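Structure in, sequence out. Go:
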């Protein structure tokens, strides 16, 4: 992860923490991460956050683990549960309002056309053929 990505992840965690009205100390206690480590993470000073720390933060902040991993660059696009984490991970240099507008537009298209944003699961077609035999 480069410095810009580390800062985006830190901003994401800080934004979630503040939305949930948690102090650094409260989130540290809830996630089992020490105050200093959490502060360094929020300030983008940790370039390779450990997956177990991200998992603890996702649980403490009540967000999907896939979203947290996406923001840390630990996932591939088809594993993402929604477009918002992908847009932030891929286009995080754009203003927040722009990312929200793109996400809203995509959701409108999905609704208008009845698309399944999750698509088929890996090997889903092959599994259904096997089960039909």
């Amino acid at each position: 992860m480069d410095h810009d990505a580390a800062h985006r992840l830190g901003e994401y965690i800080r934004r979630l923490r503040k939305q949930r009205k948690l102090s650094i100390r409260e989130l540290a206690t809830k996630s089992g991460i020490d105050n200093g480590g959490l502060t360094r993470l929020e300030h983008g000073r940790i370039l390779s956050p450990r997956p177990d720390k991200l998992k603890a933060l996702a649980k403490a902040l009540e967000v999907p683990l896939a979203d947290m991993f996406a923001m840390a660059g630990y996932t591939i696009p088809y594993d993402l549960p929604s477009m918002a984490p992908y847009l932030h991970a891929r286009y995080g240099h754009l203003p927040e309002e722009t990312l929200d507008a793109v996400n809203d537009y995509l959701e409108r298209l999905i609704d208008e056309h009845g698309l399944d944003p999750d698509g088929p699961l890996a090997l889903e077609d092959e599994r259904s053929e096997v089960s039909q035999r």
